[in-house]
Amino acid sequence: MLEEQLLDPQHHDRLSFTCGVAELDEYLHRFAVQQSKKGIAVVRVLIDTDMPKTILGYYSLSAAQIDAVQMDERTQKKLPRYPVPCFRLGRLAAHSAHRNRGLGRLLIGCAVERCLEAKKHVAAYALVVDAKGEDAKTFYEHYGFTPCRDNPMTLYLSLGS
Fold this sequence. Notes:
alpha+beta; Aminopeptidase; seven-stranded mixed beta sheet; 30% helix
């Protein structure tokens, strides 16, 4: 059974994780624990309960803001003319050995669910992500993310009204 957990460096095998993107692998191997401890990002991993040490995928979340003028016109009309609070999906990756199993979709779903839960306690309008390339941009757009006006590699997903 698949389960989402907080990254635990004493339990999860970070060094065996590889997604094929060096920057995303290096983040999990070298920086995820430090950023978690410093309160910069919360890193959550996806595991199979039959192999609880093996990381199938991961994502990181942190606080963010986005200038309302970066959003589409219809959205802008609903928002104040200053930066609005958001969550940032800093990293998202699935293990290369488990491609085409829908783990990316599952990880986005988990991240959105976490944001919606946090939104009950701390206001945030959207989930923002910086796509690392055109393939990633297409991936996020497939799940409803909208490119920002001045930087189409930064995308956002409204978390409701």
